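User: I'm curious whether this sequence folds into something compact or stays loose and floppy. Could you predict its structure so I can see for myself?
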Amino acid sequence: QKDPDYLKLWLDSFVSSYEQFLDVDFEKLPTRVDDVPPGISLLPDNILQVLRLQLLQCVQKMSDGLEEQQQALSLLLVKFFIILCRNLANVEEIGMCSYINHVITMTTLYIQQLKSKTKEKEVADQTPIEEFVRHALAFCESLYDPYRNWRQRIAGRFLSTVEKSRQKYKPASLTVEFVPFFYQCFQESEHLKESLKCCLLHLFGAIVAGGQRNALQAVSPATMEVLMRVLADCDNWDDGNPEEVSRKAELTLKCLTEVVHILLTSSSDQRQVETSTILENYFKLLNSDHSALPNPRRCRQWESRFIALQIQMLNTITAMLDCTDRPVLQAIFLNSNCFEHLIRLLQNCKVFQGHLDRLAVSTIQALTAVMHKSPAAKEVFKERIGYAHIYEVLKSLGQPSRELLEELMNMAVEGDHMAVGILGISNVQPLLLLIQWLPELESHDLQIFISNWLRRICCINRQSRATCVNANMVIRIIETLNSHSALHCTCAENLIALLGSLGSQSMGSEELLQLIRLLRTEEPKRAHPYVVPVMRAILAMARKQGMASALQYFNLYHSMAGIAVPSIHKWPGSAFSFNAWLCLDQDRVDPSTTSKSGKRKQLY
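Assistant: Here's the prediction. I'll summarize afterward.
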């Protein structure tokens, strides 16, 4: 305390000894080190009080400007605290002291200084100030995300609830200074380096991922306003580094995903912001009116950036819905009119010149995510939007790519369309849409590819055939075959073979009549090209294959399916017998349910 030079020398020596713990780069996973920094009890007596006074002196001298020596000391102090917090047993005690508030005060002033110097176009070297800011933000991370949950999340590693529950030490309680600090940093943020903005976003994500208590304190109307504003500015790069701006958008979206997941696990009295409010602003930004922008900004380059941002936002919807409370979040999305917003996005994007197909693919992915495993969501989509409408919207974008058609296939099986035999039909409507679209496709290769896949997926088992028959797929196939001049012969043969397989399951008189009418030609003496394959299909329908089976039956495939009978008020005797035939069809394997607690049907 009496010898500042000796104190600095001691701090220098301490920091040098544990320098490997100064992992201030948020983009890197923390380095695994066998050794740990010492506990507070092993430090010299009263060292924390001495350092608090030194830090306070630095804060008080900030307004007049710190000398180079004092700048070096303040950085050294922050490094010391980071190292100390890497011994997780020290985190709680360090967090309870006033160090963090002093560091935040200094960081606020430094960031304001950096903005002012950029605004005034000063070219002086700001490296020492930036270095302090980066270390100060890393110190905050050490306190509020001691296990580096956020770094692991952005590296692609997701911690389970069990893994989080095993984390012995809790993060320090979030200082009330954080939200005003975060908000102020992003005021006039165009004068702040993109890399520093990314560090601030990393810190916000770390606080949210570090623990629920701090997360709910950090997620406020002010911080959500900041995130939406940062996202809105990501289409305006000006002189910024495109990679850094893209990374800024990616981090903001990851923060929003983490926020939505945290809000789902909280009660209404704990939340400062509702998920529905976040989604309302999110969709407003996703469908923002570009026509209101001044002409200089509406260039081809800007369009490309704006569409890239929209695609990132659409992909984030899928990430948001990848959570344990998915049904709850799906209901919130439905109440936010997400289907209308997504379809409007497709309709509005026609004014852009390029990248339409990528945008359409991401939109279909988002729609699939909202409807995934939810019969209620599928019904809402049919009622509010309808597949006929989405077909017209997609068709208006021009000839589809293979990727877009494959995405519709994925929507039908709610997974990878190539996993035929593992995944069955979860949503039959996209299949009807694909059949209708076949004559419009100029590429014969695409016609053959789609018709061949449809034939395989629709005929894979009795369940799939029944689903297609109940959706009136036979009539849709016949309507498509009427446009035979636009269909490749192999595509037509695949559709007729599919029709024969579905007909062997069930074929009504009206459908049979339509099929026979299909073979009429304007020249009586000239046979229709479909005569031979159609006759083969009719013979296949009439031919009994395999074991005899009932033509009418109850389908108990769904997990909640069952037969309810009224209670027996008067028994006919002392007992009764019940007889039934059971057809145990070959079931498809659902990867999501292959666990130790697998479900099974019961008769009782």
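Summary: Residues 1-161+175-189 form one domain. The chain has a mean pLDDT of 87.
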